[in-house]
Design brief:
By secondary structure, this protein is of the alpha+beta class. The chain contains three helices and eight strands.
């Protein structure tokens, strides 16, 4: 397993705290690899719900759909533990945007997992990607970090 990478917390725009649950464990006694994607979902979903422009567009039948997602693991987390999940937007295209995530133990700066996702902005009924509206683009631009 690669040595955990230190990160700069200011490099990530959004942070959410999460208590690791006993049900997050796998048979080997550490957080199951799929659970990290649920951790990413926590910070991402809270951003979507807390951003008025995105909430308004979703009520109009728009939604961000994940079209790609990955995670690399750099350390183990065992129950009980508290983690912090960071998120930033890396790139905004015409119809999609890319986000990056980090999972650290609460109060620490070692990256135990690094992830990314790409979302297409879509019209839900049509199941079709459309250009990202300007109000959504502005909200996403506020999350860009290098």
């Amino acid at each position: 397993m690669p040595k955990p990478s230190p990160i700069e917390k200011n490099d990530y725009t959004l942070w959410e705290d999460c208590a690791v649950r006993a049900s997050d464990m796998d048979a080997r006694g550490h957080v199951n690899n799929a659970t990290y994607f649920a951790y990413f979902e926590i910070v991402r979903t809270n951003f979507f719900m807390d951003t008025p422009a995105i909430a308004a567009r979703q009520s109009e039948g728009h939604a961000p759909f994940i079209v790609a997602q990955e995670c690399s693991y750099h350390g183990q987390i065992r129950y009980p533990a508290d983690v912090e999940i960071g998120m930033r937007v890396k790139k905004i295209g015409n119809k999609s945007f890319a986000s990056e995530y980090v999972v650290c133990r609460r109060g620490e700066s070692e990256a135990l997992a690094l992830g990314s996702s790409t979302h297409a902005w879509t019209l839900v009924k049509e199941g079709k990607a459309i250009p990202i509206p300007e109000d959504i683009r502005a909200a996403l631009e506020g999350l860009i970090r290098s």
